[in-house]
């Protein structure tokens, strides 16, 4: 009986430690959520395919670049969303003229599953600006694919590589 209580006790202790780590991690992200800026250049990794199995077979993925204005009171202007391949060559520019995203508005760029031109190391460079400092938008890419009853999906967050959005 004491043995099972010990196992249960270990389980509870592990659960409590895990919960503490989750709470600590959530608290550490708050500074990033409250970051104020008037524009940025953001690098977003894109995976138009991933490799699986011993033979490294490509598994094609559809990708959706998501740009979400997190400001509830101010607009932001999307200046560019340029798509690059694994070698760093520009494939396409998806923003022909500036696009204004109102408060809490979002937009997307969709890369179909059959388009593997970007390769494993594709990326977007996203540029945006605002008239004054606002909370930074959420810029990320969602990849998803399904084949023969098997599916995969994941999110790739953007990384700020410059300020000002120019």
Automatic annotation (TrEMBL):
InterPro entries: DUF3124. This is DUF3124 domain-containing protein.
